[in-house]
Description:
The structure is a homotetramer.
Chain A: E1 2-6, H1 23-31, H2 33-39, E2 50-59, E3 69-78, E4 82-91, E5 94-107, E6 112-113, H3 118-125, H4 129-140
Antiparallel strand pairs in A: 1-3, 2-5, 3-4, 4-5, 5-6
Amino acid sequence: MFEIIITPRISETDLVGHINNTTLPVWFEAARYPIFHLFNPNQDYKDWKMIVVKTTLEYKRQIFFGKDVVIRTWVKHIGNTSLRLYEELYQGDLLCAVNEAVYVNFNLATQQSESIPPHIKKELLQHFYEEQSLQNVNDLN
Amino acid sequence: MFEIIITPRISETDLVGHINNTTLPVWFEAARYPIFHLFNPNQDYKDWKMIVVKTTLEYKRQIFFGKDVVIRTWVKHIGNTSLRLYEELYQGDLLCAVNEAVYVNFNLATQQSESIPPHIKKELLQHFYEEQSLQNVNDLN
Amino acid sequence: MFEIIITPRISETDLVGHINNTTLPVWFEAARYPIFHLFNPNQDYKDWKMIVVKTTLEYKRQIFFGKDVVIRTWVKHIGNTSLRLYEELYQGDLLCAVNEAVYVNFNLATQQSESIPPHIKKELLQHFYEEQSLQNVNDLN
Amino acid sequence: MFEIIITPRISETDLVGHINNTTLPVWFEAARYPIFHLFNPNQDYKDWKMIVVKTTLEYKRQIFFGKDVVIRTWVKHIGNTSLRLYEELYQGDLLCAVNEAVYVNFNLATQQSESIPPHIKKELLQHFYEEQSLQNVNDLN
């Protein structure tokens, strides 16, 4: 699991008085920084790899200015060229939003998707969603 | 169908050289302006009604700075308190993204969802997605 | 003078109930699109030219969601490598903000500023701020 | 002095390959959080106080994705109803931007500016820019 803490900004609120819904995709993308880094370890961003193809975002509770937010990111599926992430956003103890994001490992120069390299798959597996369940099972023993 | 034209901004691009994926939810929300206006015709936004509960966004093609974008919005389902929108984003002739957004008619004061008023339902029906298909059929006759 | 119309977005408001102050630099930059186009007419943005070096922004009145905004942009000074713009933002009849932006014609490859080409200077002169005053004087005759 | 660390987001970059200039006002505002908190300690944001009236922002160096940014904020002048802040943005050892922001203590209900309360002035004085110089002098002794 990857985890980051985000301090909401005034500019991320809206006239309804809460965090605007369009802020959440920005935060979820920010939380994927360590995954982007896996695909571009040398920080050569002209060779950017991870292109989003689908997001499914459920807004469960309003989020407010004045209190930090935690985002946790797991890997839910690794395909040959694609990757499905599962993300949870908490403010305090409250689960406020759940997101799934499908990415493809894309070569911008050739405009073709490419296999995810084995060493990256191996690293991603350490953040697999099922691991959490297993861990919970282990906690019971 | 509701339709708006958006001119991409430099600040909406990213280092990959295209429009950043987090810009699309902003544009799709901007395209819903006439629907928000239906629910808040007197522009009293302290009494804001439409709260998003889920979005499903498919990114089909990269979008670039330098060429206008068209967003078309249809109503796909009207429930008692909720509303499902279907949205298409074109740049030139290319369909670049498809979004579904589920909204609920929410009373922020009571923190309860409320039935969508009949006069709004009637107006929304004029923008129903099926109508387009029917219209296409009629065009054939 | 360059002029564009902008429809405020919900995501550009904040919890105070008005347009957030950080939205204005975004809008002013959007209004400079025709000037950027002068420097990059072939839309090859890897060769981007105009780099901002200073902005001075006065917020005169609150701006609200629900009503279009007009931004007018003039050229106030053309140096050898730099350019000073003067920008006014209106909502209805009200002048809500005034901005000055200093840009330099920068070569990102060499990391050096370059002289503004004569054909661009000539074009920019047609949008000079003093012209307006002269035009006003002419209107009196 | 107030200090915060910001991790740049992909969505804050632009097609030139660096952080877009419109991102900086967002970051500088985020850095003023503790000052906003002084004026709204009970987090009742319907009673928001601090309204920006002018910003003067100098862009000294390009800022890039992939490395944290530090923003330091000082109080430079306290008037009866207004406040002038001085802000520096560093990436690594490099000073990348300097901003001044003038705020007024504004009552949105009455639409009038109000005197800054003495207990807030006292607190703000602890973050005065001159103090830094004095401290430097003291360090020499």
